Amino acid sequence: MPTLNWLGKDKVVNYAAKIPVHALKRLYTHGGSTDNKIIHGDNLLALKSLLPLYEGKIKCIYIDPPYNTGNEGWIYNDNVNSPQIQKWLGQVVGREGEDLTRHDKWLCMMYPRLKLLKQLLSDDGAIFISIDDNEVFNLKLICDEIFGSQNFVDIFSWKKTETPANLANKTKKSIEYIICYMKTNAPIKFRGLRKTSKSNNGLMNQTNAEKELIFPANYVDTSLKDGIYCKGEYGTKSYKIFLLEDTEVKDGYFIKSVKLYGKFKWSQKNLDKEISAGTKISIKTIAFSPSYEKLEYEPEVPNNLIDKTFGVQTNEMASAELKQIFDGEKIFNFPKPPSLIEYLINFLCDKNSIILDAFAGSGTTAHAVINLNAADGGNRHFILIEMENYAETITAERVRRVGGSFDFYELGEPLFIDGDINPDVDTEQIRAYVWTTETATAYEKPECEDCAAFLGVHKGTAYYFHEGALDYDFLATMRTRADSYIIFAESCAVGEEFLSKHKIYFKKIPRDIIKIWAEENFYI
Fold first, then answer.
1. pTM of the full predicted structure?
2. Cα(353)–Cα(343) distance, rounded to whole angstroms?
3. Which of 149, 267, 315, 495 is the most buried (most CB within 10 A)?
């Protein structure tokens, strides 16, 4: 198989195995208990720190990495000359990095991240990578090398704009690419979307009791300002509708959500579900007509050309939506539309899948997951990683504004330094790491009458982390009954015969807790 070589490759091919696991420090929770995560920090370090809990569990990964166009004028620098990347290249590649071209730098940046992303994917999972023609061919070659050419699915073409720029010398660029690979060559059939279906089932019914419904921005025109009679498009009945809350107006529409009062057939829950699912309610000279369009799923495999035929929006529409979310302020350039990510997620994900985005940007992937869950009552979870400083003010803020719940994290210190436990790391973080690496489940501090070293019981085995000697005095403090026991301690003063008889397994601190994931998964 042909492989791609570039300056600095030898320094980064196996670098993922050397990255230390860092603590993830939860700063706050928004919206109550959740398994959704937004992580602020270097995505290379964050991905490695996710491995103890999420290795092999992510069903869908979507990333929108820098396209490496050389444009440094955006809030999101679309190249690899950011201070963080320059510092990393200097540390990993060394002085040789000073001679790298921007394509060399981009490949050095992407390669170890893709290696870690592969490890996080489930065996039946897939990764989708947005890219344009600056790096699409280089990306295809390194993905063949990392994921295996036999696991290549397709290069999808997404129609990003209906109005391409006229300033180009040769061609008008209307599409971008999305490269797709699976973790393994699993016999999974992707599913697409059928075209919109129309219905004449209106929102109003004269016999219904009057109720309030809240409609999102730009659904309601200002003809409702003082209350009007709305005549049905497919009948002669009229329904009086009142606007209960006024908001700002632009181009004849209310640009914030509004509360309407009338004889509606739909409940608020159903209205929210339909709008999140892609239902388009017609707006004419009245607030809405009795007809609407709705997207529906079908088992046919998706087309490798993605456009509005499948309910997927353009960059312009995504920018307008994001601007509305942030009260008319333009805060991000060229965001992807949630409908694009929704479309990709539904190729293979069920209602309980985990979706990861390691270049989170404005938070579109989380928005897409929220929309899908609202549409079908699903329990999908998202993990976002964003290294730029707007992780809180844009990424997390968008998720807040569209009704998402999440835990917000920052990267902490490395758990281990030169083969020893980092003294600056809280012991509870080491306990959580030990539990997660042993059980592949999230750690919750136990509330029981056992000794302070007790971590919990998993599948009949009780786990202990004791910063001292495993001796008979320590064994006397243990209260939990289990089928077997794994005890992490600094030394062991109990004979092997006794340990074997009572199914006690000693693991030495720190040697046996510094777990480096199977190197054959990193090395090619």
1. 0.77
2. 14
3. 315
